[in-house]
Every structure is written in C-alpha cells, then in structure tokens.
C-alpha cells in the first residue's frame, strides 16, 4: 500500500440533499468547442443537470456553465454522435423517457440546452449503452435496458426494435463491444452473457413469441405461427460473483496494432479480463470491496483520453495498453497495470464514479464523484515542500555543566521538603497509587433538588457570573480537584442552573476518565420541583375543561399536600390558606398564562381538576397523584397505623368518566395542520430561490455581455422575488414557532390521556410502559415523517400483535412508513386501542390489573 495521497486540484458541492450514482457523470466536449476543451457533465437523481469547466485550481463561479432542472430523475448520461453529423450530443436517461439534447454556448461563460428528440419508454429503464450498432460508421445508436429485461434500440428519432432477454430476473451492467458488435451484461445467476447485435435484430420481438418458441423447443404443443428466431447468447461465462461494472479496453499487453479490445468485469471480490470470445485472460482476487472502475491509456500517449471518455467503445484499436483505475470502499484509489498493482493512493471521499480526462491541457486528471454530490478533480503524486529545510549548526555538549546543574536542582528539591527518586520507595508508592485508583474507579451521583427556588439576584455574583461550577445551559465541567478525600475517594459539589425547561424530570450524566484513562459515564434521573413551572394564586372558578378522579381514601388537605408551593406563594394568599385547615380549593398559574384549579370533595376522596387549557392539567394531575401516594404511604407507615389489626387495601386512583379523546384529537389536528402549512411554505420558498438564482444568472450574463442588451424588467423581477423570499422566510419562522408550541401542547395532552387511561383501566406498570412507548408523549419533528406517522405505525403494531382479535389480524401485512395525508387513520387506531383495553384485553399476557393504581405504581410516574 502506498503512503501517498491523492491531491485535490478542483472541487465543488453539487446542490444540497441530492444523490448521484455510477452513471451520473460524463466528460466530453459537449458544446463542440473549437478548442476541444472537455466539460464535466453531471446529473442527479433529483433531476438537476449541470455542466462544469474547471479553469484553474480551486472552484470559481465561472466554472459552472449550466445548471437546469429536467423535472425527472436522471439515471445515466452519455455523450456521442447521435445525429449522424460531427457534432456531439448529450443523451439523458430518465425512468420513463430517453431524451437527446444539444448544448450551445451563449457568450463566453454560459451554455443553453435544446431538446432534439425524445422517446417515451414503455417499461421502467435501468441503464443504457451507446455505440455504432451494426458496424455503421459515423453515427451512434442507443439501447436501453429495462427492469423487466427488455432491450429497446433507438436509431435517432425512430425506435428500431425491442427484445426481451431470456431467463431474466434482475438487470445488470450493460456494455457494448464495437469490435465484435455485441452486448455484454450480467445476470442474476452470476453469469456474464454476450449477445450479437445481428442475433437480437433477427430474433422475435414480443415476449409472448419468445415464450412460445421456448415451449416448442421443450417439446410442448404449438401455440400458433411464430416468426423470427429465438434469442441465443453468443457465449456465457460463470463468474460466481455479482458484477458491479463492465468496461471495454485493451488491458492485456499485446503488441499487435489491430488487436481486439478486452472485456473488463469488476465483481464484488475479483476483477476479470476476457477476450471478445468469452475466454478468460486473467483474473485477480481483491482484498477489499471495490466501488467503481475506469480504464485509461497508459504512458504519455494519452492525449485522446478526454474525447475517449465520451464513449470508451470508439477507436479502441488505436489505443495503447490501458491501466485500470479502481476506487474502493476503504477510500483508496488503486492503479493496475495488467494484473499488477502499480500505484495506490488515499482518497478523502468515497466515489461512486471515476473518470480520467485532460482538463485545461493537463493530461491524466482524475474526476471523482461521490453519492452526496461532491465533485473533485484529483491528481496523483506529491507536492514540493513550501519551505526549505535549514540545518542549524550543532554545538558540542558540555556534560560536566549539565551534571553540575542536575546536582544543584536536586539540592534545591531536598531543601524544599521533597526527595529524589529512590528505587526502593518507588514500588510501594506505585502499589498505593493503584489501590487508590481502584477505590475511586466508580462514580456515585447524589442529587439534591430544592423545593424552594432562590432569587436570581442572590445566585448572581457582582461580576455577573454564577456560582463556581455552574452553567445556565445545564452543563458543568470540572477537573480533578475536589473536597475532602477519604481512602482515595474524592467528593465534588457541582451546581447546575436551569432555565427555560419544559420537562418535569431531568437526567444528570457525569462523564469522567478512570485511573486507567478509560472514559466512563454515570447517570441519575430526578424529579424537578413543581414550583419551577407554576405558582399558587387565588382560586379561579371559570374553566372549560374538567377532569375528576377518585381514590379509596378520605380526602387529604391540599395545604398539607402542596406545602412547598405555599412557601413561595403570595403572602396574603398563603396566609389565608394556612389558617383555613379545611381549604378544599387551590389554583396554580403557569408561566405561559394557563391556570389549573384543584377542587376536593368534602364527603369522599374525589378530586376535580379544571382549567382553561386541556394540556396544562397533566402536570398538576401527575403531581397530585404522586403526592397523594406519598402522603398516604407515610401515614400508613406510622406506628399507630401499624398497630391496627385490619390493614386497608392498597392506595389506588380511579377515573370513571369517558376518556377525553376528542380534546386530544383537536391537538393532533392542530399539529398536523401546522406541519402541512410549514411544508407548503418550504416548497414555495424553494421555488422562489430557484427563480431568484435563475434571474440572477440571466442578469449576470446581460451585464457581462459587451453588446449591451435591454434588461426586459429582469431587475424588477429580481427585486420582487427577493421580497417574496424575505416574506416566506418570516412566515416560516412564525410557523416553526407555532409548530413547536403545538408539539409541546400535543405532548402534554398525550401525557394527560396516558394518566387517565392508566387510572381508567388499572394498567400494570409494564403495560403502562408499553402503551407509553407506543403512544409517546415525546413529539419529534421530521422532514417527512413525524409524530403522527410513527404513532400510527405503533398503534397498528399493537392492534396486530398484543391486541389482535384473531390470527387473521395478526398475520396482516404491515404497510411501509410513509407521510400521512390526514389524521383520520391515526385517530381511528387510537380509539380502537383504547376500546379493546376497555373490553379487558391486555398488552402483556397474564398481567394483573389490580396493581394499576397502587401507591408505588402511581408514584413511579
């Protein structure tokens, strides 16, 4: 393996979020320039066609000659003489169309394309090949291979004929050998097959006729008159591997000037070289996974490489023996001369296609394209050093002075209380250090969450900084210094400041390096205080949403349950509630303006939550259930309660009303409508960006033209387009903010629905976790698939697995995850899941429903 790296001479990034494949690049003098400069033509699977002409090292704006959108995916590009004249045209293969374009220069730095002719394909195309089929000189024809094995031949504006390959399953690489006038492809049976053009032209045309001929040769009864011959392969070679690429060129050494070309096959683990009769000339086993290959002329006689890249099948008899360029999945570039590895270099990219061409008069430039759209022009070799290496004059070392300095430093160390290195004391000290390191290997986290918040003025110091070790973003870094140490254990206190949090719980993660330099992590989950989100206010009577839960205990006093909230409440209101021991109402005010009120029944253990916002009730209900469970657990654990002979049943919370599905569905529809509005605004913004860039390019051409031409209101159009882009960007910012708020409201509404579902159906802890994973309260936004699609897929999985009514439902096929058109299916599946839970079906087989509202289970969530 060589230690050299490939050097980048020129590179650019082709668009954003575009994909490219092996046939997405071609190099040719596509505009028929008299100077013969080769251009780099690329086409993405998103349908964008670009033409570049590098002029000097590094990318410049003038290097792009053309960028246009063809509205269909571009599968493959090919340049050649498709009109019968001396001009070169561009063939573009789409999934259902083949188009041929002519590119002309407009001015000195711009190209425009015009469609010459096109053919609509009956079957979905896979790849194509070009060449002088039938030995006709001066013109090239095109053959397109479809995914069902049909070869369609086109002669300029006319479709000549089409043939179906026999025993076809999957399409493979397709190449044309002009010397034998045959087509070489690979099959799903890991074979290499060659078909003569004359045999394909004389064979029967339809697939039905070919099947009838196969039945007749098998001895079956005749099905009618059949015209034409059966397609017969010229030769077949078993490869035993899937072919990645097929090329033609003179790889083997042959001194004859009229020696025919070789067939090069790049497989998954081997590359093969065969002659035109299918005889194996050489093969080499590869110890890596190849990505793509390209043959190129060796030696100084490679001036025609730029024109040969347009069609590697032309003028093969005039080519000298060629080298083979192979790019690997390990980001390496291999150069083979015959069967021997001549050179290897490291790449900074993983190309899907490589070419060798002459650019700006420099022979042997390597053009590489990866699947993400990075286009680079590389060369092999090394660069000269930028600075000359200078050697300083060495002076003789004075060892006597060095020894005297060492003794003086040792004397100073001993005078300061230290000691020199003692070999006898080194071993015990090392053992003690290892013991201390082993003792401090583990990190134990302990968190203390105050129920009362400090004032901001008290925690901010005079210099405007927080306390040591604190960070407003919730991340703190510290070194090895700590507090008191005992037996090699260090204690370290870190204070974290939280601001603008939207979660009721948090996770503390500490990452550290152990004594053996290994990176380790410890984490601790904790509950945030309720005072961080809301505060107590005077009772509010008006409310739009109401939820009532019941317990199997007598009503508890709200003053005792929410004593920590009264500490930081308004003094007048806190004093009034403290004096009234039988206070049965308490209201909370959130930072977003929502208000939630708790009403306690005087006769039974019933609690009503009412609010003006449906999503705001979940936090108060969760805190109420957690505090009730802790309150009664502590009361029943007292000695007086333990002496009672009759033990009460476990504490539980029930919900007897119907679940508020309609309120949750309103939040779902609101979130989905904002997603659709944001997608429409994004699409409109992309269209305006394309329009702005097109107008900008046209204006640039007008301004650079020596002969002044009228602008035709292009400047006005550009200004209006710019204003529209600003308006759409502002609109998208507003929609993104609204979508974020709608997602938080949806997550809070789902939290409330999950709590009420658990109280309603007395779900066990394991069942509740499964339901929470399927109906997740965490709303994640995606470019195409978001919370609605993932939740609908999870609900479908529950209905076809744990909640399936029959084996037929469980065996139904699961549809692929795709963007949803509306929310009707999601709402239907959520209703079905809750309906089957109400009928007694369980998410976990054999689970008991008696512990669904126990104190331990409620306090855990």
Automatic annotation (TrEMBL):
Domain (PTHB1 platform) ranges: 529-637
Signal peptide boundaries: none
Entries under Pfam families matching the protein: PHTB1_N, PTHB1_CtH, PTHB1_hp, PTHB1_pf
Record domain PTHB1 C-terminal helix bundle: where: 763-837
PTHB1 N-terminal domain: residues covered: 1-384
Region described as Disordered: spans on this chain: 206-227, 299-322
Domain PTHB1 hairpin, first and last residues per copy: 658-760
Designated name of the protein: PTHB1 N-terminal domain-containing protein
Organism encoding this protein: Tetradesmus obliquus (Green alga)
Lineage: Eukaryota, Viridiplantae, Chlorophyta, core chlorophytes, Chlorophyceae
